[in-house]
C-alpha cells in the first residue's frame, strides 16, 4: 500500500469577516495550500471538502476552476476535517489518486450551534439564551471528572490561560488577547464549573491540506510530513456522551476518543509515549484535560500535576495546542481539524516561527471530538 504524505498546508485566519463568504475563505485557503505545495489546481486529482453551514461546498470549484475533479462533501460534526484528511489519504493509499486535497470552511453566527437543524433541530432562542445542551453536557462531564480525579478549578484556568497566551503569538488566531488565570476565574459561570473564558466560540475560517504519494513527494518538497495514521470512531453503547439517555449499570464504554486513539497508535506502530506535540479538542478547558487522558497521553488525574509543572506549555515535555487551540481560535466546524494539522505540519517542519517549540519534534498528534459522540485522530511524523 502506498503511503500518503502532506506536501502543503494553508489557513485563512479564524475570526469574524463581515461581507466575506465561507466559500471565498475556502478558496483563499486552497490557494495558500497550493502555493505551499508547489502545485496548481488542475493537478489535483480528487478531494474531500467539509462544512456545516455550506450545503454544497463542492461549488467552490467555481472560484478555483471547474476541472471536473471528484470533490466529495463530508460531514461528521466537529470531526469533519479529520474525516476529510483520512479519506484524502486513503485515496492515495489505495492508488485512486496521486494528488489529493482536503478542504474545510465555515461561517457560523454568534451564539451556540443550537439554531442549526443539522446539529440538534432546536429553536434559535435556545442557543441564544445560553441553554444549548452541549454547554451543559461539558460542564457536567468535567464536574464529574474533577470529583473523581482530583482536578481543581485552578487547573481549568491554567489550561484556558495557556491557550489564550499561545493564541497571542498566532497572527491567524481569533482571540489574541492574553488573559490571566485570575481574570478567567473571575469571569461569569456559564455551566458549573466552566466559566465564560473557559469555552471556545463558533466563528469563521477555512483551511486546506494537499497530500501526495510518498514516492513522488521529492518533486514538490524537501520536507514531506507522513500521515502515519488517520482514524475515526463513533460512540459505543454506554459511552458517557451528550445524547446518552442514561448510564448503564456497571462500567460504561470508553469514549470514542479512546477507541480512535488506540486504533491510531496501532496503525502508526507507535505508542502515546512517542508523541512530542499534540493538538487536542478543547471545546472548553475541561475537554482538553479529559482528552489528555482519553488519548493516552497521561493517566486520569495526572493532569493536575502536569499542567501545574508546565508540561503542556510550548517549552514543556508535551506541548498542547500551541496555536491557541479552539479556545484561542474559535471553531468553524469544517475547518477546525485542518487548523490543527496546519499547526502540527509547521511544527514538524520547524517553520512555526515564534510558536516553534524547542527540540525539533518528529511526531505530532491531532484529536477531534464532536457531539453526540464521534472522534477523529491523525498521527503525523517527519
Automatic annotation (TrEMBL):
Stretches assigned to the Thiolase N-terminal domain: 5-173
A Pfam family assignment: Thiolase_C_1
Alphabetized UniProt keyword annotations: Acyltransferase, Transferase
Class of this enzyme: transferase
InterPro entries to which the protein is assigned, alphabetical: Thiolase, Thiolase-like, Thiolase_C_2, Thiolase_N
SUPFAM superfamilies for the chain: Thiolase-like
Extent of the signal sequence: none
Stored PANTHER family: ACETYL-COA C-ACETYLTRANSFERASE (PTHR42870), NON-SPECIFIC LIPID-TRANSFER PROTEIN-LIKE 2 (PTHR42870:SF1)
Protein known as: Thiolase family protein
Native source organism of the sequence: Actinomadura rugatobispora
Amino acid at each position: 500500500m502506498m503511503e500518503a504524505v502532506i506536501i502543503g498546508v494553508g489557513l485563512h485566519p479564524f475570526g469574524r469577516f463581515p461581507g466575506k463568504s465561507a466559500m471565498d475563505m475556502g478558496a483563499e485557503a486552497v490557494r495558500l495550500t497550493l502555493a505551499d505545495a508547489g502545485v496548481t489546481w488542475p493537478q489535483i486529482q480528487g478531494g474531500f471538502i467539509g462544512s456545516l453551514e455550506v450545503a454544497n461546498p463542492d461549488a467552490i470549484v467555481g472560484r478555483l476552476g471547474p476541472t471536473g475533479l471528484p470533490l466529495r462533501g463530508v460531514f461528521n460534526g466537529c470531526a469533519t476535517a479529520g474525516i476529510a484528511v483520512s479519506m484524502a489519504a486513503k485515496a492515495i493509499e489505495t492508488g485512486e489518486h496521486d494528488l489529493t486535497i482536503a478542504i474545510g470552511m465555515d461561517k457560523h453566527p454568534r451564539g451556540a450551534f443550537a439554531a442549526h437543524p443539522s446539529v440538534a433541530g432546536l429553536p434559535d432562542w435556545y442557543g441564544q439564551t445560553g441553554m444549548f445542551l452541549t454547554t451543559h453536557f461539558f460542564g457536567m462531564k468535567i464536574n464529574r471528572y474533577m470529583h473523581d480525579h482530583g482536578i481543581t478549578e485552578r487547573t481549568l484556568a491554567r489550561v484556558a490561560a495557556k491557550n489564550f497566551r499561545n493564541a497571542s503569538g498566532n497572527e491567524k488566531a481569533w482571540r489574541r488577547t492574553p488573559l490571566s488565570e485570575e481574570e478567567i476565574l473571575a469571569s461569569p459561570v456559564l455551566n458549573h464549573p466552566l466559566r465564560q473564558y473557559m469555552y471556545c466560540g463558533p466563528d469563521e475560517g477555512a483551511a486546506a491540506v494537499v497530500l501526495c504519494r510518498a514516492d513522488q513527494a521529492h518533486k514538490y518538497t524537501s520536507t514531506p510530513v507522513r500521515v502515519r495514521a488517520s482514524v475515526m470512531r463513533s460512540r459505543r453503547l454506554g459511552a458517557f456522551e451528550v445524547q446518552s439517555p442514561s448510564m448503564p449499570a456497571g462500567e460504561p464504554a470508553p469514549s470514542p476518543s479512546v477507541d480512535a486513539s488506540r486504533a491510531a497508535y496501532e496503525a502508526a506502530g507507535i505508542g502515546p509515549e512517542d508523541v512530542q506535540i499534540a493538538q487536542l479538542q478543547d471545546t472548553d478547558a475541561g475537554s482538553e484535560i479529559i482528552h489528555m487522558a482519553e488519548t493516552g497521553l497521561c493517566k486520569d488525574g495526572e493532569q493536575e500535576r502536569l499542567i501545574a509543572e508546565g508540561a503542556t506549555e510550548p517549552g514543556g515535555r508535551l506541548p498542547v495546542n500551541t496555536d491557541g487551540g479552539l479556545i484561542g481560535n474559535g471553531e468553524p466546524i469544517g475547518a477546525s481539524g485542518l487548523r490543527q494539522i496546519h499547526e502540527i505540519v509547521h511544527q514538524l517542519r520547524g517553520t512555526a516561527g515564534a510558536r516553534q517549540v524547542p527540540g525539533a519534534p518528529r511526531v505530532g498528534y491531532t484529536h477531534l471530538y464532536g457531539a453526540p459522540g464521534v472522534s477523529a485522530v491523525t498521527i503525523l511524523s517527519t
